[in-house]
Amino acid sequence: MTHTLLEAAKRYAQAHADADGVAVTPISGVTVVRQTSPSALQYAVSKPLVALVLQGAKRVTVGSDTFDFGAGESLLITADVPTVSQITRASVREPYLSLVFDLDSAVIESLVVEMGPTPFLAGAPVRVDPTEMEVADAALRLLRLLDRPASLLILEKQLIRELHFWLLLGRHGGAIRKLGVPESHVQRVGRAVALIRDNLAKPLRVEQLAAAAGMSQSSFHEHFRAVTSLSPLQFQKQLRLIEARRLMLADGQMISNAAYAVGYESIPQFTREYGRMFGLPPARDMKAAKMRLRTVA
Q1: Residue 33 in 3-state DSSP?
Q2: CB under 8 Å to 142, separation ≥6 — which residues?
Q3: Which segments of 145-279 does DSSP mark as H helices, in order?
Q4: What is the mean pLDDT of the chain?
């Protein structure tokens, strides 16, 4: 089963992966990632997802926690959290391959109602577990539909639903279930995170975020940190810096333009905070990134 899934993902990625090794599928929220060499550190604010690693290995760090995982294991992220990731094992002969599914809270909520009351797990928003056979089987049948567009239109939703069902029933279930509990702390904090994302360059007061979450300010601070591992201010700062880095790397924006675009008014402050997060000031980081690209090319 695992080998068949690997071959299906490999074929699709070879045909459709972009320059960054990401192959977006016509199935909403499903991508295949392929890399032929170990990567540099990648910074992102990840949304809830599950990534099935089919070949190679990866390392993901969230706060002070580091996870190393490889083929046959799945990474689960159940909240919008800043991550630092790096593909640690990949080659032209055996590229890193993973299948990534965005978790759909509406599907989870519907299944939670139908499946009945079962405890859900609090705690860290990131975990790694072995990939279960039922999950791999549903993923394989979903990938096979990519070669049959007419069938995909009819069967896509029910297979996505089945995939979520097996995830809820398996090792990941307790952690995923909280995404589908109406008005849970995770969902409330999610509303505040969405407000931060949608107003990245604007100053937001804690009382605005707490109101969006429907919590008192003290309760909001406690639950925001429990869900994301960061304070609201730290979260907003990291999100701004990650987006500024993306603007400079992907869009070629000047340092000052990127800083102003994400809400910074002081370039020296931006440079200091950027260096603390990424290990290099912006100009040196961009130079190093360009050198890596030339080396790969």
Answers
A1: strand
A2: 27, 30, 156, 159, 160, 163
A3: 149-169, 173-177, 185-198, 206-213, 217-228, 232-250, 255-261, 267-278
A4: 88
* Amino acid symbol at 271: T
- C-alpha atoms less than 13 angstroms from C-alpha of 73 in its C-beta half-sphere: 15
Nearest to 245 by CA among 125, 82, 89: 82
Q: What is the pLDDT of residues 229-280, one digit of tens each?
A: 888 998 899 999 999 998 998 888 999 999 999 999 999 999 999 999 888 8
At 146-203, the pLDDT tens digits run 989 888 889 999 999 999 999 988 877 877 887 776 667 777 888 898 899 889 888 8
CA dist., res. 258 & res. 239, Å (int): 13
Q: Which residues pair with 43 in a beta bridge?
A: 84
CA-to-CA dists, residue 102 to 28, 59, 106, 288, angstroms? 8, 19, 12, 31
Q: How many residues does the chain have?
A: 297
Residue indicated by tokens 């869009």: 251
Whole-number Å distance between alpha carbons of 54 and 97 = 5
- Show the beta-strand stretches assigned E in 73-194: 73-77, 81-89, 96-102, 126-130
Smallest CA-to-CA distance from 278 within 258, 260, 251 is with 258
* CB count in 10 Å sphere of residue 206: 15
Q: pTM of the predicted model, to two decimals? A: 0.79
CA torsion, ordered 232, 214, 118, 66, to nearest 10 deg: 0
